[in-house]
Amino acid sequence: MELHVFQKLCKKLQSQGSLDDSPNSTVEHQVHMFLHIVATDASNRDAKESFQHSGETVSRYFHLLITAILQLEEHYVNQPSKACAGYTPIPQEISKSRKFYPYFQNCIGAVDGSRVPVTVLSKVSSVYRCPKGLTAQNVLVVCCFNFTFQYVLAGWAGSVHDSRVLEDAKKK
User: Fold this and answer.
1) 11 contacts: CB under 8 Å, gap ≥ 6
2) Domain definitions of the chain by residue range
3) Per-residue pLDDT averaged across 41-67, rounded?
4) What is residue 47's three-state secondary structure?
5) In 3-state terms, what secondary structure has residue 160?
6) What's the confidence (pLDDT) of residue 131?
7) What span, in angstroms and rounded, lies between the C-alpha atoms of 17 and 124?
8) Helix/strand/coil for 157
9) Nearest 5°: phi and psi at 152?
């Protein structure tokens, strides 16, 4: 992350996320610790060692940052509304089922990856060979409950892992 982006994030978390300096730590230090944990999938113990804080302090700052980030939601996240194209109410299969509701009560659609068989030049066929042995393209699809496609990302070789395709979709 570039320095000016980091500084802007810290200012937003202070102004809109009600995050403040503590007697022993600046907002910048708290954000740095949080980003380190999230970006590297560090455990509390790893962060404790890296930042020379107690596990309780690491936990407290992590939870403060989560709370501050959630307060930014109203400024940066547009929730789907009934006026929105593609909006569909929660299907009865979910709302009336103890198995699915309340776990999927705020679900607005589904994401799935699929490997679609393709014919490619023999010189690149090894790249497109998927774990099942056929040549394929890895395709990511997002749809809402009325089965309309909201997003499609195609073109990845069949040998590419789904998580890499999802990361690419997040960047676009």
Assistant:
1) none
2) 3-76, 109-171
3) 90
4) helix
5) coil
6) 85
7) 50
8) strand
9) -135, 130
- Picking from 112, 90, 94, the residue whose alpha carbon sits closest to that of residue 103 is 94
Query: Residues 6 or more apart from 1 whose CB is under 8 A from it?
Result: 9, 35
Contact 142, 109 (CB under 8 A): yes
Q: What is the pLDDT of residues 71-95, one digit of tens each?
A: 888 787 666 555 555 556 677 777 8
Percent of all residues in the chain with a pLDDT value above 70, rounded to a whole number: 91
Q: Which amino acid is at 72?
A: L
* C-alpha span between 71 and 66 (Å, rounded): 9
Query: What is 123-134 written as a DSSP string?
Result: GGHHHHB-TTSS
Distance CA 142, CA 84 (A): 16
Distance CA(83)–CA(6), nearest Å, equals: 35
Contact 141, 149 (CB under 8 A): yes
Please provide the CATH number assigned to the domain covering 3-76: 1.10.10
Query: Strand 149-157 relative to strand 136-143: parallel, antiparallel, unpaired?
Result: antiparallel
Integer Cα distance of 124 and 159 in angstroms: 11
Nearest to 54 by CA among 63, 62, 44, 64: 44
